[in-house]
User: Which sequence fits this backbone?
């Protein structure tokens, strides 16, 4: 079982990033998937979640309207498009498979000028 995040990096305020989470070793197409983030000194928080068939999506208030979660079950991949990034979006972003209870290793997002 593996979840591998990619797409993080350093971006200026107002910029955009697209995170990816590549899955393997479990029934990805049957699993609810989530993005979490953890900033230094803070607890891990839910950013967004998406149901197995993409019919049910939820966003944290802090990112709603600026982010889009999506998935491609044929490619076993989940995405998080983040726009209008703010310094407070700086965190390690993790993907999580809800049913199987699996975590990725995380990808760092830093928003700074």
Assistant:
């Amino acid at each position: 079982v593996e979840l591998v995040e990619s797409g993080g990096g350093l971006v200026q305020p107002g910029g955009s990033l697209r995170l990816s989470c590549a899955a393997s070793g479990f029934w990805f197409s049957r699993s609810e998937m989530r993005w979490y983030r953890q900033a230094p000194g803070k607890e891990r928080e839910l950013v967004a979640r998406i149901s197995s068939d993409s019919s049910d999506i939820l966003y944290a208030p802090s990112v709603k309207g600026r982010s889009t979660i999506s998935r491609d079950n044929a490619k076993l991949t989940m995405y998080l498009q983040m726009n209008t990034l703010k310094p407070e979006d700086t965190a390690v972003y993790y993907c999580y498979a809800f049913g199987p209870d699996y975590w990725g290793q995380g990808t760092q997002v830093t928003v700074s000028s």
Remarks:
- Residues 31 and 62 are 24 Å apart (CA to CA).
- The first strand starts at residue 2 and ends at 6.
- The mean pLDDT is 97.
- The two ends are 37 Å apart (CA to CA).
